C-alpha cells in the first residue's frame, strides 16, 4: 500500500497560505460513512474543501462534519504518493491529469452523478496513519463502481485547531464587518429619525398656515360670491333685453330668408339651364376632340405610309440597279458560255475528225489483215499442190534429190515466212481490239466531259433566268 504524504502540514502553515489555491469553492455534501465490521452506512452532512499548491505537485481534500467540525478527515497526495497510487490503481495520467480528473469527479459528485464514501479500514502492522479510504463511487443497479480510492486519515488536533482558528478568524472578521455595518446603519437610523422630527415640526407649521389660509380664502370667497350674485342679476336683466332684441332681429332675418329662398330657387333654375348648356358644349367639345384625334391619327398614318413608300421606292431603285448589274453579269456569262460552247463544238469536231481518221486506219488495217489471210490461204493451197506433186513424183524425187533439197530449203524458208506472218497476224489481232477499246474509252471520256460542261452551262443559264424572274417578281 501507499505511504502517507510527508507534506500534509504544508497546508496548515500560515507562511504557505499565500501559495494555497482553492480548486473549487467549498461545498456542503452528504458523505456516506461505512464501517467494515457491521457494514453500517450513515450519511452525514460535511463540508468539502479542495486545495492545491501553486508551482508544486501537491493536492489536499479535506472533509469536516457540519455539526461537529472537530471531526475532520484529510487526504493529501504529493508526487511520491501519486506514483504509488498510480502503480496500485493502474492510473494512466500525469499528476496534472490526475488533478483535472479529481476536479471533474468532485463536480460529478456535486451534480449527483457520483457519491463520496468514507470507509474505515483495519490497522496494518506497521501502524500507518491512514485509517480511512475516500472512494468516488458510481451507484449502479447490479454493482457499485469505484472510480478512485484515496487514502484518508482523521486530521490531527493541530490541523483541526488551525482550521477552526482560521474559521474563527474569518467569523470574527465577518462579525467585525457586520458590527461596522450595524453601527453605520444605526447612525443612518438616528439621522433619519432626526429628519423625521424636523419634518413633523415643519408639517405642524404647514397645518397652521393652511388653516389660516383656508379661513382667509373662505372670507374672500364669500365676498366674491356676493359680488357675483349682483353681477348675475345685472346680466339677467341685460339678457332679457338682448332676447327681445334678438327676437326682433330673428323676425327680420326670417323675412330675409324667405326672399333668399326665392332668389335661390331662381338661381337653381338658372344653374340647371347653364349646366345643360355646359353639357351640350362638353359633348360638342368631345366630338370635336374625337374628330381631331382621328384626323391626327389619319395624318400620322399617311405620314408613315409616305415614309414607307419612299423607303420602298429607294429599295426598288436599289433592286433595279442590282438587277441591271445582274443582267449585265448574266449577259457576260451567256457570251462566255457561247464562246465556251463554240470552243467545245470546235473541239468536238476535231475529235470527230481524229476518230474518223482512226476508224479509216482501222478499216485499212482490217483490209490488210484480210489480204494477208488470202495470201496465207493461197500459200497453203500451193503447199498442198506441191505436196501432191511430191507424192506423185516420188520416183522422180530420187533422181532429183538435189532439186528436192533445194525446194525443201525453199519450203522451209517459206514456212518460216508463214510463221512470221502468222505471228504478225496474231499480234495485230491482239493489238487491234486493245486500240479499239482505248479509242472507245477516249471517245466516252470526251463525250462525258463535253456533256458535263454543257449541263453546267445549261444549269447556269437556268439559274440566271430564275434569278432574273425572281427579281422581276420582287419588283
TrEMBL record:
Domain SAS-6 C-terminal coiled coil: start-end pairs: 157-213
Pfam families assigned to the protein according to its UniProt record, in alphabetical order: Sas-6_C_CC (PF22216), SAS-6_N (PF16531)
Gene3D superfamilies membership: Spindle assembly abnormal protein 6, N-terminal domain
Subcellular location: Cytoplasm, Cytoskeleton, Microtubule organizing center, Centrosome
UniProt key word Coiled coil: yes
Domain Spindle assembly abnormal protein 6 N-terminal: 19-152
Residue stretches in coiled coil: 182-365, 397-438
Stated name of the protein: Spindle assembly abnormal protein 6 homolog
Amino acid at each position: 500500500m501507499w505511504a502517507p504524504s510527508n507534506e500534509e502540514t504544508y497546508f496548515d502553515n500560515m507562511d504557505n497560505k499565500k501559495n494555497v489555491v482553492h480548486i473549487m469553492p467549498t461545498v456542503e455534501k452528504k458523505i456516506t460513512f461505512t464501517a467494515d465490521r457491521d457494514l453500517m452506512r450513515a450519511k452525514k452532512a460535511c463540508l468539502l474543501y479542495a486545495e492545491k499548491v501553486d508551482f508544486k505537485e501537491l493536492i489536499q481534500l479535506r472533509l469536516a462534519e457540519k455539526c461537529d467540525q472537530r471531526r475532520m478527515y484529510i487526504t493529501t497526495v504529493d508526487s511520491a504518493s501519486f506514483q504509488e497510487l498510480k502503480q496500485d490503481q493502474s492510473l494512466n495520467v500525469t499528476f496534472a491529469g490526475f488533478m483535472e480528473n479529481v476536479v471533474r469527479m468532485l463536480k460529478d459528485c456535486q451534480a449527483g452523478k457520483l457519491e463520496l464514501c468514507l470507509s474505515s479500514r483495519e490497522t496494518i502492522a506497521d501502524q500507518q496513519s491512514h485509517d480511512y479510504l475516500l472512494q468516488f463511487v458510481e451507484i449502479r443497479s447490479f454493482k457499485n463502481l469505484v472510480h478512485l480510492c484515496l487514502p484518508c486519515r482523521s486530521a490531527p488536533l493541530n490541523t483541526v485547531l488551525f482550521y477552526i482558528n482560521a474559521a474563527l478568524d474569518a467569523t470574527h472578521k465577518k462579525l467585525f464587518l457586520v458590527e461596522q455595518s450595524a453601527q453605520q446603519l444605526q447612525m443612518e437610523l438616528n439621522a433619519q429619525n432626526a429628519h423625521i422630527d424636523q419634518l413633523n415640526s415643519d408639517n405642524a407649521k404647514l397645518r397652521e398656515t393652511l388653516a389660516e389660509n383656508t379661513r382667509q380664502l373662505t372670507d374672500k370667497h364669500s365676498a366674491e360670491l356676493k359680488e357675483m350674485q349682483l353681477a348675475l342679476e345685472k346680466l339677467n336683466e341685460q339678457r332679457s333685453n338682448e332676447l327681445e332684441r334678438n327676437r326682433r332681429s330673428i323676425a327680420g332675418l326670417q323675412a330675409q330668408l324667405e326672399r333668399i329662398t326665392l332668389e335661390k330657387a331662381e338661381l337653381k333654375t338658372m344653374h340647371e339651364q347653364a349646366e345643360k348648356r355646359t353639357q351640350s358644349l362638353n359633348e360638342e367639345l368631345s366630338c370635336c376632340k374625337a374628330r381631331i384625334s382621328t384626323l391626327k391619327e389619319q395624318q400620322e398614318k399617311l405620314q408613315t405610309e409616305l415614309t414607307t413608300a419612299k423607303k420602298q421606292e429607294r429599295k426598288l431603285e436599289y433592286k433595279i440597279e442590282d438587277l441591271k448589274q445582274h443582267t449585265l453579269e448574266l449577259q457576260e456569262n451567256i457570251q462566255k458560255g457561247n464562246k465556251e460552247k463554240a470552243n467545245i463544238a470546235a473541239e468536238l469536231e476535231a475529235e470527230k475528225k481524229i476518230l474518223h481518221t482512226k476508224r479509216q486506219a482501222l478499216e485499212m488495217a482490217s483490209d490488210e489483215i484480210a489480204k494477208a489471210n488470202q495470201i496465207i490461204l493461197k500459200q497453203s493451197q500451193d503447199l498442198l499442190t506441191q505436196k501432191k506433186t511430191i507424192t506423185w513424183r516420188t520416183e522422180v524425187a530420187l533422181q532429183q534429190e538435189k532439186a528436192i533439197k533445194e525446194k525443201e530449203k525453199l519450203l522451209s524458208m517459206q514456212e518460216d515466212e508463214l510463221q512470221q506472218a502468222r505471228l504478225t497476224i496474231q499480234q495485230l489481232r491482239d493489238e487491234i481490239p486493245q486500240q479499239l477499246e482505248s479509242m472507245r474509252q477516249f471517245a466516252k471520256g470526251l463525250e462525258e466531259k463535253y456533256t458535263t460542261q454543257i449541263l453546267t452551262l445549261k444549269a447556269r443559264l437556268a439559274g440566271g433566268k430564275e434569278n432574273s424572274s425572281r427579281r422581276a417578281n420582287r419588283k
